[in-house]
Amino acid sequence: MKKLRVMVLYGGRSGEHEVSLRSGASVMRQLDREKFDILPVAIDKQGRWLLSEISSFGSLDSALSIPADATPVTLRTYPAKDGRGELIELQADSSGSLKTIPFDVAFPVMHGPLCEDGTLQGLLELAEVAYVGCGVLASSVGMDKEVAKRLARDAGIPMVPYISVKSGKQDWSVLASRVGRELGYPAFVKPANMGSSVGVHRVRSESELRPALEDAFRYDTKVLIERSVSAREIELSVLENREFGGAPRVSVPGEIIPRHEFYSYEAKYLDDNGAALLIPAKLDPSQVKLAQDMALKAFSALECEGMARCDLFLDKNTGEFFFNEVNTIPGFTSISMYPKMWEASGISYPALLTELVELAVARQKRKRALLHEFGR
After folding, report:
1. Which domains does the chain have, with CATH numbers?
2. Long-range contact list for 55-61, CB < 8 A, 24+ apart?
3. What is the pTM of this model?
């Protein structure tokens, strides 16, 4: 079979740019070179698309870089008849022509706003390009933790009580009193549309609330304040069924055991000993089934496709599970839970990437068969 050319998109304009550099390196290292050619495209912090050759990277053992000699490109945003995507170089050659570079599948390995929130997915939809992961709807609501909680709540999935706050003029004393009355202290403050624990704070008293909110509002215009529970952090990987319409597949649960006060950005990415990752999590069979059922329910409630990682809290005192969030482009670094939980469930990292690309191709074929005009 002819190799598919996979455009790996990494970087991005979000606060999780550096995390993406690590995820991108792992994906490029693990993609099956017998089946796929790799087209590395970085999106820098200014939003420029920059094409490199895979040979430009001497090593893919850690984080990627954006080579200084990368070629500025743009995505053709109208569909091709053959279903392929196309990059257009922004620099004309000696004849004054613009070179085009075709590809078969886009694999976004970017996290956070402008990457994972449906904006990039919408661009790829305009071009009718096959791409890995969730579509526009699930990407948008999965990124917005508050909207995701609304959908999960409507599906009957339990969650920790929370308050949603928009940026703008605030009566801080009234808000602090409300948090104390409805949630109690300590509480967690987190941007609604950010991942990797960027801008997250544990607030112990009313006096700490305003500084935490002001920092969180640096990253988003909407912030969640959640009740703090003494909980274990349980995660599950979900993968779309190979057979369209079949029940999604779910991995064994894993557990994050932070060595910091909570699983902060520093614990995830800056401290090599910031947390222990336990796969499978130490749960009894009934707990495993309950966690897996909740993950599948959340995946369906948010209309997810391709992949997602579902994060739950397990209350240490009551034994209750609570929905936390869904990540539609989970981390793919060498220590990330999503691929590791699938490895523990019998799907190797390279096989997982192959499945994700194949699911993207199958979805594009289904979409291209749909009518776009009445009566035609």
Report:
1. 4-133 (3.40.50.20), 142-157+230-328 (3.30.470.20), 162-227 (3.30.1490.20)
2. 57/25, 57/28, 60/25, 60/26, 60/28, 60/29, 61/25, 61/29
3. 0.89
